[in-house]
Design goal:
By secondary structure, this protein is α/β, with parallel strands linked by helices. It has eight helices and ten strands. α2 crosses α3 and α2 packs parallel to α4. It binds adenosine-5'-diphosphate and magnesium ion. It comes from Rhizobium soli.
């Protein structure tokens, strides 16, 4: 785990600024949920943390080190996407071991590590299957497993449960939290679902139109919303 600091971060696409100076301090091992309406800049911010998007201005530090100029693979960060982005022509085992293979880890080490992670995710019986032979929840677990094998200090999730049905979504929320506690990673979790935010977060960051409206614990936001937007957003049904 590592602290993560987002200091006056801005993002422009051409002349259009979509993030207008975002400040967020995340401590070691914290589970932070970024929540806000569609288009407010959640994914853009997450992609900047991951190194998938240039930072137009400001600074991102991980573990006290400024990472603005570092490639994704130099950041000790793993990201799980909404679409899972599994490789369809690879088995579960190959999907999960791929990043280690790229890093030229010895074959036996890759196998051991993948089996280890697969066991924690209840996937050990599915290692030889292909993504199309799995349920939605299993695919989501493979996507998490693929991120976990590298033992990253920081985990980023971009709406990882939005393709699942309501019942499975609730189950996966608690699985993700259990994993977070077991692995002791720092986690930034994006959702547009305020119920998900309220139930999962140590700390919630409410975003709107490229700005942070409020940062606080679920209880603080519920009891003392900073403005009408936060009150309306937190109070409205999912
Ligand atoms: P969210 O994840 O909160 O739904 P996004 O981060 O995807 O929002 O988008 C924030 C804003 O940035 C939106 O107005 C979107 O249209 C714009 N945007 C995102 N990616 C690009 C891009 N590659 N080029 C231009 N505008 C973009
Ligand atoms: Mg998004």
């Amino acid at each position: 785990m590592a602290p993560l600091t987002i200091n006056d971060v801005r993002k422009s696409y051409g002349a259009l600024e979509v993030l207008h100076g975002v400040n967020i301090d995340i401590t070691d091992g914290e589970f932070v949920v970024l929540v806000g309406p569609s288009g407010c800049g959640k994914s853009t911010l997450l992609r900047m943390l991951a190194g998938l998007e240039d930072i137009s201005a400001g600074e991102v530090s991980i573990g006290g080190r400024v990472v603005n100029a570092l490639q994704p693979k130099e950041r000790d960060i793993a990201m799980v996407f909404q679409s899972y982005a599994l490789y369809p022509h690879m088995t579960v085992e190959q999907n999960m071991g791929f990043s280690l293979k790229l890093a030229r880890a010895p074959k036996q080490d890759v196998r051991d590590r993948v089996l280890d992670v697969a066991k924690t995710l209840n996937l050990e019986d599915y290692l030889q299957r292909y993504p199309r032979q799995l349920s939605g929840g299993q695919r989501q677990r493979v996507a998490m497993g693929r991120a976990m094998v590298r033992n990253p200090e920081v985990f980023l999730f971009d709406e990882p449960l939005s393709n699942l049905d309501a019942k499975l979504r609730v189950k996966m929320r608690s699985e993700i939290k259990q994993n977070h506690h077991r692995l002791k990673t720092t986690t930034v979790y994006v959702t547009h679902d305020q119920v998900e935010a309220m139930t999962m977060a140590d700390k919630i960051v409410v975003m709107n139109a490229g700005r942070v409206e409020q940062v606080g614990s679920p209880l603080e936001l519920y009891d003392r919303p900073a403005n009408i937007f936060v009150a309306g957003f937190i109070g409205s049904p999912a």
